[in-house]
């Protein structure tokens, strides 16, 4: 199953426990496939580095993301999110034919769907995943 992770889910999963960490565990076990673009990867790394002052987690996760994600070409397919910085997640999901965008960001969650791609919280994603 192909999904796009908003940066807040990645960061929460890396540094704290809870449903975002469980989503990352599914990824590490290759139960789900994460789609990224260069722009998303750049944002992931910038925010990881901002929190991880020593750089250990940034290097570890940067390597993991590059080796375990499917890289999608950056394309501007849509520009509908009220926070224009979040359009990159929508565009990645559309171009990569993702089933879900998993986010904790109200700007994305308020959209609910885009082209049949559901935009849901990590908790909701895990509930749906268990039903599969």
Describe this structure in words.
The chain is built from 7 helices and 6 strands. With 132 residues, the protein is α/β, with parallel strands linked by helices. It has one domain: Rossmann fold (3-Layer(aba) Sandwich). A 6-stranded mixed sheet has the order 3-2-1-4-6-5. A hairpin with a 2-residue loop joins strand 5 and strand 6. Helix 2 packs across helix 7. The longest helix has 14 residues. The protein is globular and about 40 Å long.
Structure annotation, total helices? 7
Gap between N and C termini = 10 Å
The helix/strand series, from N terminus to C terminus, equals: EHHEHHEHEHEEH
Number of domains: 1
Task: Extract low-pLDDT stretches.
Answer: none
The CATH first-level class comes to: Alpha Beta
Oligomer class: single chain
User: How much helix is in the residues?
Assistant: 40-55%
Largest sheet: 6 strands, mixed
Q: How would you sum up the global shape?
A: globular
Task: Return Rg in Å.
Answer: 14 Å
- Mind telling me which CATH architecture this is? 3-Layer(aba) Sandwich
Mean model confidence by pLDDT: 96
The tally of beta strands, per DSSP, is: 6
Looking at the structure, the CATH topology is Rossmann fold
* Backbone structural class: alpha/beta
Proportion of strand residues: 15-25%
